Amino acid sequence: MKKILALIAAVILLAAGLSLTAVTVSASREYSNVLIVDQATRQSAIEAERASSPNSADSVKSVLYANAYWFLALAVALMAAGCWLYSIFNALCPASRKIVRALFTSYRPILILLLVTAVFSCLHVRFFSVANFTNILKQVSHYAILAAGVYFAILLGGIDISVGSVLAFSGGMAAFIIRAMPDNPWSALFAVLAAIAIGAASGAMNGFFIAKCSLQPMIVTLAAMSIFRGATLVLTNGAAISLGKSLAGSSAFISFGQSAIFDGYLPIPIIIMALVYAAVYYLLNQTSFGRHMYAIGGNEEASLLSGIDVAKTKILAYTASGVLAGIAGIIVAARVASATPTAGEGYEMDAIAAVVIGGTSLRGGEGRVLYTLIGALIIGMLNNILNLTNVSSYYQTIVKGVVILLAVLLDARSTGKK
After folding, report:
1. In the prediction, which pLDDT does 365 show?
2. Please, how many CA atoms are within 13 Å of residue 327, restricted to the half-sphere of its CB?
3. Would you state the torsion angle of the CA atoms of residues 115, 119, 124, 125, taken in this order, to the nearest 10 degrees?
C-alpha cells in the first residue's frame, strides 16, 4: 500500500510541477522572448501592458509573469518532491529500480538531451524551431567530427588533445594551396587531399610514439598540439589566409562549409558529419578493428595475450583521429573562407566534453559513438542558448568546464566509483 501511495503522490506532484512550469512559461512569452530578464525589464513590460489594456492589471497572465521566478521555484520544488517520492517507490519496487538503473546508465545521454531541450525551450521562444536546430547542427558539425576522432583515443583509454591544432594546420595548408595555385581549378581537390593527409600523418605520428615508444597519450598529444600550433603560425605568418572569389578553386572549396542542398534546408557540413558518423559506426561495430578497439580499452594486457596487434590498432586509431581533425579543418576553413592562426583554439575541450557527455568511459572500453554525436549536440545547444539569452561569451568556458565535471561525476557514480 505504501508503494502505491508513493507512486500516486509522485505522479501528482510531478504533473503539478510540469503544469505550473508550462503555464508560467506560456504567460511569460506573452511579454518577452526570453524567460530570464531583470526585474526592471519585467516591470516595464507589465506597465506597458497595463497602459494598453487597463483590464489586464490583475489577470492571471500578468500575475504569473510578475512573479515568474517564484512560480518556477515552486514548480521545481514540486518536481523535486515528486522525484523524492518516486525514489521511495523505486526502493520498494525491484522492477522499477531495474528500469531506472538502465535508463540512467545505458540511455543517460538521451535523457540529458531531452532534459536540456525541454529546459532550453523554456528559456527562449526561438530555441525550439527547425531553423534553430538546423543552425545548431551546422555549428556543431566540426566539433562533432573532432569528437568522433577523440572518441577513438578515449575508447582505448587514452586522449588526444592535439586535434584543435591539427585542425588549424590542415585548414591553413588547404587555404595556402588554393592561394598558391590561383589559376588551377583542381586546387580545391589538392587542398582537400592535403588537409586529410596532414591529419593522417599527425595521427600516425601520435600513434607511433604512444604505441611503439610507450609514451603517455597526454604528453605525446600535448607535444603535437604545440608543434602543429607553431606550424600553423609559421604557415600563415600570423595572419589570416583569405580565399577570395578570384581564386580558381575557392568556390568549390568554400562549398564544403557554406553550401546547402534541398533549397538551402540541408547544409553540406551536416551531410559530411552524418557520413563521418555512419562510417565510424560501421567501423567500430561491424569490423574486427572495432572489436579490437573495445577489447584493448577494456583490458590491454588480455588483448595482447589473445593475439591482438595492440600497437597496430593504436596507430590506426590515432591516425583516424587525425584524419577526422583534417576533415574538420576543411569545414572550418571553408565556412569562414579563410584560415586563421588561431583556428581550433579550445576545440579539443568541446570535443572531449562531447565524448564524456556522450557517456564514454574515460577508462576506455565503454561507449557508443552515436552518443558522442548526442554529446556534441548538447554542447552546441548550450552554446546556442547562451547566445540567445545574451550571456557573455566569457562565461561559456566556465559553463563547459562545469558540464564536463558533472559528466565525469555521473560516469564515476554509474560505475560505483567516487
Report:
1. 83
2. 25
3. 70
